[in-house]
Write a structure and sequence with these properties.
Length: 295
């Protein structure tokens, strides 16, 4: 059985159907009963509800597991503790393989979430477990496209002139599924997952404009504004770790490019990776379909 952590997150929602389609037994770990209901309806064999930083939840999640796919919950204040604990629990349980979703250039420790993932990588390397580490670039996320489709405004919380590389979540989870199905072939590997291209915000705006067929305003926002888009009306004082993470991203990405190479991803997929333009077209089509269904 395969344990997937953060199973209702960006990756989990795409990975789990692929594992089920491959006839894999899946145990999903989520933090809310609502997420559990959705996963059970999808056909997930077992669902554990709770915070993996709690020992009782960890023990229940890891018991009898053969393989683990661990992706830390997005900008969670206990991400490091969860990552360390799951490595320790997997070793104690005799798990045969742990696949860890880290981040591109985890060595860049002035980025808070990179330093956390770098530490977990080191802990995993020292654990004696069989492992694979995936290092994806920045996700292509619907959250960043929503204001574009609704208001013709593309916003980033760092310098608009800096270049960045991106990657599609569908491609990441295709790779994750491939690795989990054939762990021996991918044992002890660390894979950078990057789509083709390196873009400034203005270049990304031009691509979006070409897809939607209208001019797009490209706008720089600060990290605090981006956090508001992320958490909605919740009290920002409850999110001190998250704002520290986002401010570090703003500082780093405003002073340095964040880029990678697509060769490894192309080899792993055995096809060309999804481009940013293809991703925008996919998301815009879905947006138009939702709009039509509401009319």
């Amino acid at each position: 059985m395969i344990l997937v952590t953060a199973a209702n997150g960006n990756q989990g929602r795409l990975l789990i159907p692929k594992l089920l389609a491959a006839d894999q037994l899946v145990r999903a770990c989520v933090q809310s009963p609502t997420s559990a209901v959705r996963l059970r309806a999808m056909g997930v064999h077992e669902v554990v509800v709770g915070d993996l930083s709690q020992p009782a939840v960890m023990a229940k999640a890891i018991a009898g597991i053969e393989k683990v796919y661990h992706v830390g919950p997005t900008i969670h204040p206990r991400e490091r503790a969860m990552g360390m604990s799951i490595v320790d629990a997997a070793r104690a349980e005799g798990v045969s393989h742990l696949v860890f979703s880290s981040v591109l250039h985890a060595i860049t420790t002035d980025l808070v979430q990179h330093e956390i993932k770098r530490d977990i990588e080191e802990h995993l390397l020292s654990s004696g477990l069989e492992f694979t580490i995936l290092q994806p670039a920045n996700y292509m996320l619907p959250l960043k496209l929503r204001p574009v489709f609704e208001k013709a405004v593309f916003e980033l919380s760092w310098s608009l002139e800096r270049h960045q590389s991106l990657v599609d979540l569908g491609d990441i989870t295709d790779v994750a599924c491939t690795v989990l199905l054939d762990c021996e072939r991918h044992a002890a590997a660390t894979y950078e997952l990057v789509a083709p291209g390196r873009y400034t915000a203005y270049e990304l705006g031009e691509i979006i404009s070409g897809v939607v067929g209208q001019p797009i305003e490209v706008r720089e926002i600060d990290a605090d504004t981006y956090l508001t888009a992320w958490v909605g009306d919740a009290d920002s004082h409850q999110f001190t770790h998250q704002i520290r993470v986002l401010r570090a991203i703003t500082a780093r990405y405003s002073s340095h490019d964040f880029i990678g190479n697509s060769n490894v991803l192309t080899w792993l997929l055995q096809r060309p990776p999804t481009t940013f333009e293809a991703y925008v077209r996919q998301q815009y089509h879905a947006f138009q379909q939702r709009a039509s269904s509401r009319d």
